[in-house]
Amino acid sequence: MTTTSEARKRRAKPMSVDERREAIARATLPLLMAHGRDVTTRQIAEAAGVAEGTLFRVYDNKDAIVDAAVAAYLEPGPFRAELRRIDPQLPLELKVRLIIDRFHDRFTGIFGVFAALGTHPRPPVDINVDAIVAIFAELLEPELERLRVPPATVFAFVRVVAFASALPHFSSTISLDSAELASLVCHGIAHGPPGGPPAEASSPAAAGIPAAGIPATDLPTTEIPTTERSEPCS
Questions:
Q1: What are 163-207's pLDDT values in tens digits?
Q2: Dist. CA 131–CA 227, nearest whole Å
Q3: pTM (2 d.p.)
Q4: For residues 11 and 210, what is the distance between their CA atoms, to the nearest angstrom?
Q5: 128 — phi, psi (to 5°)?
Q6: CB 79 within 8 A of CB 88
Q7: What is the chain's mean pLDDT, rounded?
Q8: Chain center to CA of 12
Q9: N or C: which end of the chain has fewer CB within 10 A?
Q10: Which residues of 144-181 are buried (b: 16+ CB within 10 A; e: fewer)?
Q11: For the chain, what is the total number of helices (H) and then of strands (E)?
């Protein structure tokens, strides 16, 4: 027979205010994708599994909930964790393909959120380039001697390619999948310098990529076809 004290021990620990705010923000994001700013607080409360009044005990208004949901989505921690799950021992071109897939999914999601809202909110997000370059260094460590450019430049190349391929008004006009984009990043478009011996297709040294690549600080920015501008983070 279960005693009252045992039942209390099994009861879920009450959430702190910060935990409740985070749970509400996470539950709100899919609603934003579906309804944009027309989402109601009743829908948010039902998705979060709380009473409508609870929303306003932790947030000032609906706009604050929307901003928190977008900020939670832009937070780069989960995205970086996805990159770290890629096995560094995989073949180079496959690794680059998986990296491009993850960047593409992230940018596509960000553009989708902004499109649903019709604006570009600017929540405070710490863009730590060094952190993601360190992930690239770990992933590319087995091939460092083969690379003509440092991991920071590979990151810049991959980010530019994935960003462009995810733009809603651009992606529909190209037919390159992630495997083809990975091949472009790894091998370029030429076998080697004019008049030189043909290089092996599997060697990144044959890529024809200039040794002086894009500095890590020169991150890609572009105009997104909406009323405001924002820079997706990684």
A1: 988 887 776 667 788 999 999 999 888 766 666 555 444 443 433
A2: 31
A3: 0.69
A4: 61
A5: -100, 95
A6: no
A7: 78
A8: 32
A9: N
A10: eeebbbbbbbbbbbbbbbbbbbbbeeebeeeeeebeeb
A11: 11, 0
